[in-house]
Amino acid sequence: MRALADFIMRGRVQATVVVAGCAALPLLFWLCAAAGTLVFLRRGFKDASSVIVWGILPAMAWWVFGEPRTLMVLLGTLGLAALLRAGHSWNRVLLVSIALGLLYGVILGSVFREPIEALARALEKALPQMLDGLYQQLSVEEQARLGALIVPVLNGLIAALLQVVSVLSLMLGRYWQASLYNPGGFGREFQAVRIPRLPALVLLACMVFGPNFGSALALLTPLCSVPLMFAGLALLHGLVAQKRLAKFWLVGLYVTLVLFMQLIYPLLVVLAIVDSLIDFRGRKSPQGDDSANGEGKS
Question: Where are the bilayer-spanning segments (predicted)?
Fold first, then answer.
């Protein structure tokens, strides 16, 4: 990966080839966003715009053919990168990603309304078998309310997935920047991520109580969980860096996250909320320049 980052930063032609090529190829839109982010973080908008525009063109073509995700992730990742380049913390970037996820949800609800509704109808028919005898114990009103939540939850899950991809693309671009110009800088940045107490409690309230104020707000549950999930990962990375945990914990974490995501993901969210209240890593800040851009604080 570092070799690819080095190739991208050799010149405008090389960067354009990677950004445009990945935007044109299916399923590589995340790499396009990461490459564009690297150029933008290092060179700024003025120099990066001539590269990014060549990624936007094939992304717009994909949109015309009914595939908006390439353009959504590219522009969304660059928007988050603009905050990072302006000197905002990762905490703020992660919180702003919720607004990005909401925007994704609106677009997906418009472009993919029919497929999402068709999937929701299929899931609603399968609910009696999925919930076994519990579904029959619900009243008619409760069954109707449960059915009304399926569409916004599905929409929110897909939007949250794109939100995660955007944040991961940003992290990859930042990691590349650090590996080229300030080795170890991204690690220090990520290990320091911790959602403050008040925002964490607000996110928890939105996840738990949002659906009670309308079925449309059910999409907040997956979107608000994303910053907490990344904060949970940062907590474990930080504890390993402080030598409070052995490195094999990280290996086990990512293996189990892939195999048992439905169990590990909520656990990371809970860990992040508890860390916001207790601060497991303490208040001692790492020494030295924590900026990953290799240029000091921007």
Answer: 15-41, 48-65, 71-86, 93-112, 149-172, 216-236, 248-274
